[in-house]
Amino acid sequence: MVRIAVQLQPQHAADYGLIRDAVLRSEDAGVDAVFNWDHFFPLHGDPDGAHFECWTMLGAWAEQTERVQIGALVTGGGYRNPDLLADMARTVDNISGGRLILGIGAGWFEKDYDEYRYDFGTAGSRIDLLGSSLERIEARLAALNPPPVGPMPLLIGGSGERKTLRHVATYADIWHTFADVEQYRHKSAVLAEHCAAVGRDPSAVQRSTDTPKDLADADVLADEGVSMFTIPVSGPDYDLTRVREAVDWRDARG
């Protein structure tokens, strides 16, 4: 079954009410999930423009929404103590009644690290840190009282073939990648190899990607097994035109 998500990028909306309204409009439009992102500065437009923090916002979304899943696409793996992140996630999950997707990645935006005094390191060191964080998150979630409401999906974003996809095979319920059809086929085959190495059925990992501009390509990806398509939308206007088109496409597929 195909699902549609929107990523409401928390940039260039100095009035938080604009984001609150976009969440409401997204749920009313029929999306299945609403994501934000975990950055501290805008990625597009004025680099010093208005911006809000990710996880504080998710707590508000947990109270505001009724039906959609919510989450970060994705949390920066090195930005928070992983045991604390696990505790934050299960708390938001409980507030929402079990609707959180815990999205996490290795992190990449150097300005976030420099301005907030995190060690940027290298791509390899950040991916290694992600792996150790995933181990700690898994252990902490198992120890928390109360636990998450239900099976809280873990989404890993990234497609590095040697390390990241190994983490996906080991830990993820959902894999999010940025890829065209041919790239997706290749990366999916690599993921299947990692799944075989850790003794896991590749079909146990749901596939997620950004929505192609041409929905004919989305049809191909859906036929290849991608089940969640996300449309990124930026502030301050949060135009949901493409989101509604994607919802109509989902419904037409049945």
TrEMBL record:
Q: Which Gene3D superfamilies does UniProt cross-reference here?
A: Luciferase-like domain (3.20.20.30)
| Keyword vocabulary terms for this entry | Flavoprotein, FMN, Monooxygenase, Oxidoreductase
Q: Which GO terms describe its molecular function?
A: alkanesulfonate monooxygenase activity
Instruction: Read off the InterPro entries from this record.
Output: F420_MSMEG2906 (IPR022480), Luciferase-like_dom (IPR011251), Luciferase-like_sf (IPR036661), SsuD_RutA_monooxygenase (IPR050172)
State the Gene Ontology BP annotations. alkanesulfonate catabolic process
Is Endoplasmic reticulum tagged as a keyword? no
Where the record annotates domain Luciferase-like, the positions are 9-208
What's the superkingdom here? Answer: Bacteria
Looking up NCBIfam families in the UniProt record yields: F420_MSMEG_2906
Its recorded name reads LLM class F420-dependent oxidoreductase
